[in-house]
Structure formats: structure tokens, C-alpha cells
Amino acid sequence: MSDDGRGDGSETGFLGTARPDDPARPDDPRRLVSAWRLFTSVFRKEVTTTLRYATNFLLGQVGFLFVLVGIVAGGRRIAGPSFGEQLGGVVVGYFVFFVAQTAFGAASSIVTQEAQWGTLERLYLSPLGFGSVLGATVAAEFLWSSFQILAHLVLALLITGETLVIDPFTVVPLVVLAAAPFLGVGFAVGGVALLVKRLESATTLFTFALVALIAAPVGEFPWLRALPVVQANVMLGRAMREGVGLSAFSLTDHAVALAAAGGYLAAGYAVFRVCLGRARRRGVLGDY
């Protein structure tokens, strides 16, 4: 950006001219208000879309119940009475699975859907900037999905008869730490999809990898805690099954969880930006 010489403080860049009264300027406090309005608008759109296609939503919930009942019934049949001792871990693992899957889908699906609809390039015309639009959209979709995941957790507890400790001051931060790495992975997959266009098989691979990460034997191989979601899953398991508070975990536990969350999120977003730049230079950003 450079001053255009008109003397009114305006600046001209590749997206056009930004003036002092333009909320696109990073130092304008109205930018936060605009970002909040964007977030609430996208959130209302998510709720409206869910209600508009209620049948699809309800079938998804029925599918969730069938899978959960199948896991519990199958586990009791195979493992016998001893399965009851592992039931809390199964419920927590199922909860973490949905959190991670939602985070992955929120980041990757938005990018690929906007590209398929041919509206991805239009996001660059927003006065808030592409990054703000993408961040607000991902946050709104993840928040709405979190309410559904919470309903899943309540249903899982009712079906299994299991009791878990749900301290929001402990569970919410750990859920954020569990979701952040897969937001990064979702951004990376979405960025690569801008170049190769079709990458649905990555979702299947992601599901298998996620199950393996949640069941990772961290007791035998402590280095596995550095992988996405592993450390946060361990901490969530102790918090929800044993009632361990957030402050009771060691500094090492917090450091590993924070480093994994921030590292994978930053790396994934960096991959997305690199792929986005290449797609723009090749002129294939809006192609599908």
C-alpha cells in the first residue's frame, strides 16, 4: 500500500483504495464491530441452514445414535463386564472424535465449497479482508457444531448411563486445544484442494488417522503426545473421568498441548496461504 498523493490520507493497493473512514484499515476500531456483525451473520446462516434442512440434520443425529449404541453393545458383548471400566474412556474418545472431525470439516469444507460455488474470489472483495471473513466463518460454523456435539455428549451419557465431570472452565479450554490442530490440518487440506480440486479421499484417511490418534498408547510411547489431539485427549480424559481441574495439570502437560495446538494450526494455515497464492498466480482459484 502507498499514499496516492490526494492528501486525504488514502492509500492505494492491489485491491483498490482504502480511505481513513474505511473500516478495512487495521487501526480502525469499527473493524471489530464489523467482524462481530460478520460472525453473527454467518452464525445465523448456519442455524437457518440447519433448520431449513431439518430432515438431513435429524438423520445425522439418528446415525450418531446407531453408531454409539453399536459401539457400546459390541464392546459389552466382546469384552464382557470389564467393558464397563472402559466406558468412560469410550464416551470421551467419541466426544473428542466429533470435536476434531468438526474442526477439520469447518476449515476444509468452507474453502472447497466456496471454490465449487465460484464465490471464493468474491471473498477478496470484502472490506474486512479475506482472512477475517474466513476466520469468522470457521469460528461461527465450529461454534454452532459445538452445540450439536454437546447434545451428542448428553445423549451418549444417557444411553451408556456413564457419569462424567464436565467443568466448563476445564473442558472448554481443552476442547479448543483439541480442535486447533485439526483446524490447521483442515486449512492445509483446503489449500491443497484449491490446486488439485478434488481431495475427498483425504477425509477418509483423516477419519482413520483420527481414530488412531485418539487411541494412541501414550503410556508406552510418550513422544506420541506431540501429535495432533493426543495430549489434549489425554488431558480431557483425566478431566472428565477423574475430575482433574485445569490447574492440576503440570506445566509440561500445558506446554505440550499449547505447542501442538499452536504449531499445527500455524503450519496448516501457512500451507493454506502458500497454496492460495499459487492458485491465484495460476489463475485457477475459481476453477473447479
What do you see in this structure?
This protein has about 290 residues and is mainly α. Helices cover about 70% and strands about 5% of the residues. It is built from eight helices and three strands; from the N terminus they run βββαααααααα. The protein has helices at about 30-50, 55-80, 85-115, 130-160, 170-195, 200-215, 230-240, 250-280, and strands spanning about 1-5, 10-15, 15-20. The protein has a three-stranded antiparallel sheet with strand order 1-2-3, with no helix packed on it. Helix 2 crosses helix 4 (about 130-160). The protein is globular, with a radius of gyration of 22 Å.
According to DSSP, the number of beta strands is 3
Query: Low-confidence parts, pLDDT < 50 over ≥5 residues?
Result: 1-6, 11-18
Helix content: over 70%
The averaged pLDDT comes out at 78
SSE map:
Elements: E1 2-3, E2 11-13, E3 16-18, H1 30-52, H2 54-79, H3 83-117, H4 130-160, H5 168-196, H6 201-214, H7 230-242, H8 251-282
Antiparallel strand pairs: 1-2, 2-3
Helix pairs in contact: 1-4, 2-3, 2-4, 3-4, 3-5, 3-6, 3-7, 5-7, 5-8, 7-8
What tags apply to this protein structure?
70% helix; three-stranded antiparallel β-sheet; 288 residues; mainly alpha; disordered N terminus; globular; 8 helices; single chain
Give a quick rundown of the structure:
The chain has helices spanning 30-52, 54-79, 83-117, 130-160, 168-196, 201-214, 230-242, 251-282, and strands at residues 2-3, 11-13, 16-18. The protein has a 3-stranded antiparallel β-sheet with strand order 1-2-3, with no helix packed on it.
